[in-house]
Amino acid sequence: MNTIKKSLRLQDITIFFILAVLAGCGLVYQYLLSHYAGRVLGAIETVIYTMIGIMIVSMGLGAFAARYIKCAYTGFAWLELGIALLGSSAILAIAAIFAFTHTLPQLIAFTFGLPPDLTPQGGVIQSLMEFAAVVPYIFGFILGVMIGIEIPLIARVRQSIYGEHLEHNLGDIYGIDYIGAGVGAALWVIFMLAMEPSLAAALTASANIGVGLIFYFLYRQRIKWNELLLLGHILVASIIVTVGMYGAQWDAIMEDTLYKDKVAYHINTHYQRIVITERTMDPAKPSVLTLYLNGRTQFSSNDEHIYHSMLTYPALAASARQDSILIIGGGDGLALRDVLRWQPKQVTLIDLDKAIVDFFSQSKALEGDEVNTRLLELNQKSFSDPRVTLLFGDAYNKVDELLQAEQIFDTIIIDLPDPNHPDLNKLYSARFYAKLKQLLAGDGAMAIQSTSPYHAKDAFLSVGVTMQHAGFEHVEQYHHNVPSFGEWGWTIATKLGRSPRQRLAALQALPLDDGWMTKGKLMAAFEFSQHFFKDRDKIRVNRVGSGVAYQYYRKNWEIQQGIYQKEDDFESNEAIPEPSGDISVYRNK
């Protein structure tokens, strides 16, 4: 009797171990598909939430479907083999479909000698593009159904082992499942988030097939077609090893087709995917480098000087001094480069992602060749300047440390991504701007990249309205064309005295020659079309939890892309105070 109990206890421990590993694998698959789909589809925040929702629903459907599997042992063993196969290959399959649909129009144009402006876009091509956009969700749905079948089958296996109904069977199983999922989430955040997706998929599938083999050897007498199943494990294992070894290379080749230019380098960090492309426009000049973060253009080497000059020059010129400067964002070091030309005594830079700052401050070698030499030349190795202090973390919280230290800055430059994600909304909020107001010297100025006044006008206007609500006496906006982005906008504010525009107009000559800015360009940037600000009073203040900036941004870009569906506009329960200062312009990055 004791021997039987020990055997049952050992089997129980093994079953619980298998279940915990599978729960972790299931959560990693969910995060992995969501993360990768966000990269290829572009709208990261929407895609992630949609994918997770689809997989949760499909897991529920899978739990219902489990009742139709007659033999729990056979069904579970073959199920794990299928999950390992699909989990390891889904990323590359999605990449291949996207690569095919994006290269097909160019292939047809080349085959039939069509000019660039006649590259096929509608009809079958459009249908294929729309299908490709749905493919990640299809894989997520199928994988979710398969994962959902696991728990009901494992519950039946456990009851079969004991030969009776177990009172706490489901409670024990779900308890282990939740714990395993928590461990999977931790592994994803700590290790896998910065991995190549195909490698992360291969490692997860390896765990899947590993516990599947444990189950096979433990219960092979109860599994039908077990010899064929063992052969399947060998074949799938070889696929997983191949994906682990070559998947990142294949994925990179297929991803390259999504970019117009040659991909020179790419890397994953815990926060974003960095891709650098290269294009030769004039053999007599250096090639043009373009940086993408999560698929969005951040700068192009042939015109970034326009953007960064417009970001930094007005605020620095409008400040009474340029001794102490604060930069929020700007992990590429390009805004910092321009700031250092003003000979400040000290500059503090806050950025969320240490990995991207390292990439723009230290030489990185790939197969013996330095891959970021041009980028270090572009930012003039600004991070190596001894006057620079780097702080890493969420800027919303990091500025509190500066407030506690009672620091004051002559100029503040905010170079953050557009509010294209709910997490970024707080960095465009009245509370955040109020914190920065306390850090700014009374005779200083603050400038903010403020998305595009053309493509995202409401989001642009919201920055100005929100800054006024935060208590700045003068808030003005300005714009300029940056070829890589199009029409772009910025916001500038002062606490006391004259407005930024008045201060700049009073300059007899520009205080610094940066090789691009002129007094005429500077003052013309504050001019907008006649009725540009006509509806500004209808624009809401963005607060920390309101999501106003994010909603405006998403709505504006959906309208631009022709996919916006009109809904009831989100209403505010509070009145927007009348602006007390000046207001004038916007940008999109």
Topology of this protein?
Elements: H1 2-41, H2 44-65, H3 72-111, H4 123-162, H5 169-192, H6 197-219, H7 226-256, E1 262-268, E2 273-279, E3 288-293, E4 296-300, H8 304-318, E5 324-329, H9 334-340, E6 346-351, H10 354-359, E7 365-366, E8 369-370, H11 373-378, E9 388-392, H12 395-404, E10 409-415, H13 430-439, E11 440-449, H14 457-469, E12 474-482, E13 486-494, H15 500-505, H16 519-524, H17 548-561
Parallel strand pairs: 5-6, 5-10, 6-9, 10-11
Antiparallel strand pairs: 1-2, 2-3, 3-4, 7-8, 11-13, 12-13
Tell me about this structure:
The protein is built from 17 helices and 13 strands. By secondary structure, it is α/β, with parallel strands linked by helices. It has 2 domains: 17-256, Growth Hormone, Chain: A, CATH 1.20.1250; 298-561, Vaccinia Virus protein VP39 (Rossmann fold, 3-Layer(aba) Sandwich). The strands form 3 sheets. Strands 9-6-5-10-11-13-12 form a 7-stranded mixed β-sheet, sandwiched between helices. The protein has a 4-stranded antiparallel β-sheet with strand order 1-2-3-4, with no helix packed on it. Helix 4 crosses helix 5. The longest helix has 40 residues, at 2-41. The chain starts with a helix and ends in a 28-residue tail after the last helix. Residues 571-589 have low confidence and may be disordered.
Which features would summarize this protein structure in a list?
589 residues, alpha/beta, Growth Hormone, Chain: A, Rossmann fold, 2 domains, 7-stranded mixed sheet, 4-stranded antiparallel sheet, 17 helices, 13 strands, 53% helix, disordered C terminus
